[in-house]
């Protein structure tokens, strides 16, 4: 049930995020958005209103003012206390450094790194996020199996219809043959009588 609630909230957040531009860039240095997000939540990085988007998003909060960061840029960094970070599937590298508190991290990026207090997270103090991710290879295999099953079913159906037609032809042939042999016997009887 918790997973369902999390998925619905994520869907609503993503729907809202796709329509809004990047918020709260305190500075932009060579296509890098630097955020501090004081008393603003959620922070969004990577969604822009124009054609260009930031290649790197870097969010740093020295207090607990950062709560949620959703990133879709090429590279995403977050350094925070008691916060949540989400990286979409288009991200190459996603890194969260949790300084204190119960941080959570949802990462669909190509490479994900999470540190807690300067070391790798033991995941006891990290909030688990439920998400089912089916790799595209499995989806392709399932699509291939579905196509093969469909083709084989269609082929079996065609063979069964063909057999039914042949069965009807054989039955008709045997009826005609038995009727013709009966007629031949009747004709031979008629010829002998006169």
From TrEMBL:
Q: Where are the transmembrane segments?
A: 137-161
Q: Which UniProt keywords apply?
A: Membrane, Signal, Transmembrane, Transmembrane helix
Which superkingdom?
Answer: Eukaryota
Q: Where is the signal peptide?
A: 1-19
**Name of the molecule in the record:** TNFR-Cys domain-containing protein
């Amino acid at each position: 049930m918790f997973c369902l609630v999390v998925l619905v909230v994520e869907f609503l957040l993503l729907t809202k995020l796709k329509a809004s531009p990047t918020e709260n860039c305190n500075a932009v240095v060579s296509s890098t958005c630097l955020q501090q997000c004081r008393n603003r939540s959620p922070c969004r990085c990577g969604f822009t209103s124009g054609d260009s988007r930031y290649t790197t998003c870097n969010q740093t909060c020295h207090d607990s003012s950062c709560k949620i960061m959703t990133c879709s840029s090429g590279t995403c960094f977050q350094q925070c206390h008691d916060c949540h970070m989400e990286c979409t599937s288009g991200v190459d590298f996603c890194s969260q450094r949790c300084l204190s508190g119960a941080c959570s991290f949802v990462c669909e990026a190509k490479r994900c790194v999470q540190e807690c207090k300067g070391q790798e997270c033991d995941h006891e103090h990290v909030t688990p996020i439920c998400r089912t991710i089916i790799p595209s290879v499995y989806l392709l295999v399932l699509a291939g199996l579905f196509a093969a099953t469909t083709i084989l079913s269609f082929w079996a159906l065609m063979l069964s219809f063909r057999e039914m037609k042949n069965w009807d032809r054989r039955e008709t042939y045997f009826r005609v043959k038995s009727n013709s042999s009966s007629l031949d016997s009747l004709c031979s009887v008629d010829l002998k009588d006169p």
